Amino acid sequence: MTHRRFIARLLAWYGENARDLPWRRTRDPYGVWVSEIMLQQTQVKTVLPYWERWMRELPTIDALAKAPPGKIHKLWEGLGYYHRVRNLQRAAQIIRREHRGRLPSNIEELLDLPGIGRYTAGAICSIAFNQAQPILDGNVIRVLTRVFGIGDDPRESGTQAVLWQLSGELVQQAVRRYQAGEEKVPGTSAGPTRAASTFNQALMEIGALVCLPRDPHCEACPLAKDCVALRDGRIAELPHKTPRPPITPRRFIAFVLQQKDRFLVRQRPAGEVNAHLWEFPNLEVKHGDDDVKKAAQCALGCQPANLTALGSIKHSITRYRITMDVFHGSKPLGRGTPAQGGRWLKRSALARLPFASAHKKILERLPAD
Q1: Same domain, 71 and 166
Q2: Same domain, yes or no: 54 and 80
Q3: Which of 130, 306, 362, 369 is the most buried (most CB within 10 A)?
Q4: Residue-wise pLDDT tens digits, 276-286
Q5: Is 16 labeled as catalytic in the residue annotation?
Q6: pLDDT in tens, 26-63
Q7: Which of 231, 260, 295 is the last residue of a domain?
Q8: Catalytic option among 16, 36, 52, 169
């Protein structure tokens, strides 16, 4: 397929099928930046309420830079990959200090900020500032490898270079075609000054809605007539997939320790997974190890009274399939004090804290007052 035909068909399709997403209604680079960070490894439908709440609570870079860490973690609670939100605030503080509070439009300056890699920098430059910068995420890789029949592993550096170059050529040609002002972007009201922004969003959109990893909607694809993978029966093969690491089961035991109307919780230390989030005392145990009293002694430093099961919680983190068995008990009488580092808090205070996702589910199972 020629680049010219690819661009024209894709933009015409986007004009008729683009989703009405809130970050597409703004020209605020900050809002675009926040959306791109939230969308990393997260589906659009999940991000929508988070983005809207975030923009209400922290509408500017200055507000983000000054926000208490507890607030940004609470706003992010449930999105996972919490290093993203910490990098977001660190970058905002740098922007406030070194860029007069304005998100830089220079791609090299963006790449110097925490949490912004090549894809995110290209997305911000093209979408927010309409620069002809290439983008390459999972959706774009899938579209380009299938349409142009690129069969090498996209994780290899050589294939990455080919894909980045192809993405760059396409967005640059889209801009050249419409920058003279003789045409508007097909199927849209966008003028030539938004060609880079519109094209890159269209490229991501067709990967998200049509060129799906499994069961793609080839019958609805404007690129299908010239798609090499469809022509050669290689849709399922492309992009080339490297074997995934094996699934690893893990088991934890968590304790909901109660003293009257207060519960014992602790905050995860910096530098660990889910740093700064809150959780109930817990520890990892081997599968088949059902000695709950021993686990309590290790996790709490004491034996709770009236220990009863609250059930199990199952969740996944990357390749790990985690089962967490939860037990409720009361603070032991006499000797024996729970391990240091925890806090006894009322239910109302717990609701204001950011919890790791599995422990947030425990909150929902707390015994009634």
Answers
A1: yes
A2: yes
A3: 362
A4: 899 999 999 98
A5: no
A6: 989 999 999 999 999 899 999 999 999 999 999 999 99
A7: 231
A8: 36
